Predict the structure of Spore germination protein GerPE.
Amino acid sequence: MRRTSIVNYIIVSGISSASTLIVGDSAKISGHTRALAVQRQFAVFFTSEAEFEDYPSFNKELPQPNLPLEKVNMNVVQESPFIKVNRVDVIGLAEASALQIGSTSLINSESRIKHFRQFVKLGNNTESESTESIPLGEA
């Protein structure tokens, strides 16, 4: 039996980076994102500072679950032709995430992010925490 999704309110503050919001059924949901996230003490940025291929985490093959191929007999009884939701409040959907009210057969999502924190190392200053600068291009 096909079901109809009925939603009174959905409040989502933000959706970004290959994320999906679906009310209803879908056959497949795919979301893929890659990012180099750089936080610097001083906002100085250059074009083409780094490439994803420079970092092993972007080149590794995504591990897949080793699921048994045995057949499972299932009897599902859906007593109502509706999926009823009163209210959903979400702060944010980010980095290939999904929010769905309904059903789907396959979800394939992947997010790979390399974070950099680059701060100027201060001499004997013990009041502020500092970290050595990590130049882009070095893993």
Summary: Residues 1-60+83-139 form one domain.
